[in-house]
């Protein structure tokens, strides 16, 4: 005789380590990492919002007391990160076109931070995923696309600048 559905448990699937109906609870150290990562991403976005975007498209980070880009100083060409702070500053003001024109990869990173920061923070505080858990193929695919966009954007800027 089969057990009643409330007692029966299924094996975890490859995409979700818990059996159906079970709640995925995080250990304390993982919660701490998730809260810290979420706070970091949100604080970076808040900081970017407080900075005035540089009209030249790069150098906004100098408002934080950081030095100029060594790559730009040495080679006269922008590095892959040049303009990312400016891009985030534009993005946090809702100026997506300005953000994209400065650094496309920075815009995408800013969007990812705006989504994952609060999500990690809430998930860590709750001790379980807020919404569905991340799928490996989504994380890997997004990482590959983001890396390619940053590389292509940099190659275009270096080649045509």
Task: Describe how the helices and strands are arranged.
Blueprint: H1 28-50, H2 70-75, H3 84-91, H4 96-102, H5 104-126, H6 136-160
Helix pairs in contact: 1-3, 1-5, 3-4, 3-5, 4-5, 5-6
What would you note in describing this structure?
The chain is an all-alpha fold. It has one domain (28-160). Helix content is 57%, strand content 0%. It has helices at residues 28-50, 70-75, 84-91, 96-102, 104-126, 136-160. Helix 1 (28-50) crosses helix 5 (104-126) and helix 4 (96-102) packs across helix 5 (104-126). The N and C termini lie far apart (74 Å).
Inertia-based shape? globular
Number of helices: 6
Q: Biggest sheet, open or closed, and with what strands and sense? A: none
Helix content: 55-70%
Low-confidence stretches: 3-12
If you compute it from the alpha carbons, what radius of gyration comes out, rounded to the nearest whole angstrom?
A: 21 Å
Mean pLDDT: 87
Structure summarized in a few sentences:
The chain has helices at 28-50, 70-75, 84-91, 96-102, 104-126, 136-160. The protein is mostly helical and 161 residues long.
Q: Which terms would index this structure?
A:
6 helices; single chain; mainly alpha; 161 residues; 57% helix; globular; disordered N terminus
